[in-house]
DNA sequence: TTGCTCAACTTGTTTGAACAAGCTGACGCT
DNA sequence: AGCGTCAGCTTGTTCAAACAAGTTGAGCAA
């Protein structure tokens, strides 16, 4: 039976909020007040059913709300747990090409410096350029590109995926880009040795909820968005690579350090 | 009655996916295939109930899934609509202090250049520094700061909120920061006129699901994350401001253009 | 002690029903 | 023609019940 929520009640204020939202609001408040600290467990659905005089389904609706806000997680047989946050800082404005090797190693050193254990799987493909990549690389759509793909973990927790596309003309100059394994000295350094130096890049950052594929690959729980980071690298004003990085939003933060003096001359 | 989903069925593959997920997957596929283009409406819950031979609640679970993925929206009385995307580019690496005025105006000109109509509300507060702000401004926690708050719209659609904190010592030098209205020439330019020039900044970017407050202020629908952008501005290596910007993730993309030459000298 | 089983918890999935409430167009009245 | 009402669509909220399935610890057997 439908039971209209009291319109004038509660703490005296008008509150014609639906019951499931009252549940969510109450629990959210208690979590932020520290009654349920990160890592702790919430009362079971049955307990909450009693406490709020609501059906189990209604309580579940409220809990679902908090799950999709990224505040709590649920596991069958275990209960609901308050999510604890731990972010990894990602310094994006640093240039890797002087004393630092490239990608894999920038990541490796960063992670190790943080006292964590890095791990990654690697894959190389030949692939026709997707439209957005082709546009950024200034090549024909569906023209051949080399795709170097990385799946990265920190302490065996999936952290990010990275797909770097190289245009065909560059691969002709730098054939080792098609090597199926990691390039020991780093691709940036390898390219620099061939006289192709990444002199600048253009970064685009956006966010959205993960696709089912991303959810699987990054083992993401509900209510956590991804950070999408696209870096287009240039040498002599010509695009030489385009890197799409997908980062778990709950684990990563990106940093840029920019100085006015450095940028003064290149007013866009 | 509980009815176990067929284990060997469908297209011949093992598929012991729960029914509500089958609904979500089928619809997601049809949306990405273009059967339901952005802006179009999905069949009603009743139609889907028939099509999938499931109860209305099960169909709703599947639809909820897509809503929280940010793929569709629902409106009472109207139905489910496929979300259409339109992003606004935000050039974050540009320096505003040469020929461009500050914040409000960088935003105003950007929006107008895009052929859109900007609009913002403004507020000034005196507020004790929150811990994270105090740390970034290198002042005592809870010491006095001036908070200048902006609520921004594009074509009357809520776009972002921006809160800039100035430390007390700076306000003593630049009293107009407490003026309740907009500073016509822009705060950066006003400060530069007093010999305080923002020579660099440190940006931090992260993402998460919005809080209920943010959902209300930015009129966000379910399944859309926010982009959090923290900019700490420096003059002579001393923090002079800290700006927290909350951006609707479905409407914004941030860009950084960085050149190696510019950054070569300031290896951190 | 070790190891297995199982009862008793937990959340996950599904159904059917009922009523609330927003939206739209048809119909009929003025 | 103009306007208001309302039937009939839509999604939103809530309930009660049942069975599925993951987790854990108590207790029994080897």
Task: Report on the architecture of this protein.
Two copies of one chain form a homodimer. By secondary structure, chain A is of the alpha+beta class. The first copy, chain A, folds into two domains: 19-82, Winged helix-like DNA-binding domain superfamily/Winged helix DNA-binding domain (Arc Repressor Mutant, subunit A); 88-264, Chorismate lyase. Helices cover 29% and strands 31% of the residues of chain A. The first copy, chain A, has a six-stranded antiparallel β-sheet with strand order 4-5-6-9-8-7. In chain A, α1 crosses α3 (56-68) and α2 (45-52) crosses α3 (56-68). The longest helix of chain A has 14 residues, at 19-32. Chain A is elongated, with a radius of gyration of 24 Å. The termini of chain A are far apart. At the A-B interface, β7, β10 and α9 of A face β7, β10 and α9 of B. The structure holds a DNA duplex (30 and 30 nucleotides).
Mean pLDDT level of chain A: 86
The structural domain count of chain A equals: 2
State the assembly state of the protein chains.
Answer: homodimer
What helical percentage do the residues of chain A reach? 25-40%
Strand residue percentage of chain A: 25-35%
Low-confidence stretches of chain A: 1-14, 97-104, 263-268
């Amino acid at each position: 039976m439908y039971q209209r929520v009291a319109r004038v009640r509660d703490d005296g204020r008008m509150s014609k909020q639906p019951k499931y939202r009252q549940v969510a609001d109450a629990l959210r408040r208690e979590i932020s007040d520290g009654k349920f600290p990160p890592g702790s467990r919430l009362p079971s659905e049955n307990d909450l059913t009693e406490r709020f005089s609501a059906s189990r389904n209604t309580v579940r609706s409220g809990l679902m709300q908090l799950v999709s806000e990224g505040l709590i997680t649920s596991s069958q047989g275990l209960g609901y747990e308050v999510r604890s946050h731990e972010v990894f800082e990602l310094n994006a404005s640093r240039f890797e090409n002087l004393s630092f090797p490239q990608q894999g190693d920038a990541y490796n050193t960063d992670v190790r410096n943080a006292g964590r254990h890095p791990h990654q799987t690697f894959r190389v493909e030949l692939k026709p350029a997707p439209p957005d990549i082709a546009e950024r690389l200034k090549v024909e759509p569906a023209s051949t590109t080399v795709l170097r793909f990385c799946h990265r973990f920190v302490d065996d927790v999936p952290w990010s995926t990275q797909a770097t596309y190289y245009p065909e003309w560059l691969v002709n100059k730098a054939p080792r880009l098609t090597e199926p394994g990691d390039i020991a000295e780093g691709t940036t350094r390898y390219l620099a040795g061939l006289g192709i130096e990444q002199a600048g890049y253009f970064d685009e950052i956006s966010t959205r909820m993960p696709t089912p594929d991303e959810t699987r690959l990054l083992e993401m729980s509900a209510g956590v968005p991804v950070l999408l980071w696209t870096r287009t690298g240039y040498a002599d004003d010509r695009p030489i690579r385009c890197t799409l990085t997908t980062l778990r939003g709950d684990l990563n933060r990106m940093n840029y350090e920019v100085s006015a003096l450095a940028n003064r001359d290149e007013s866009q």
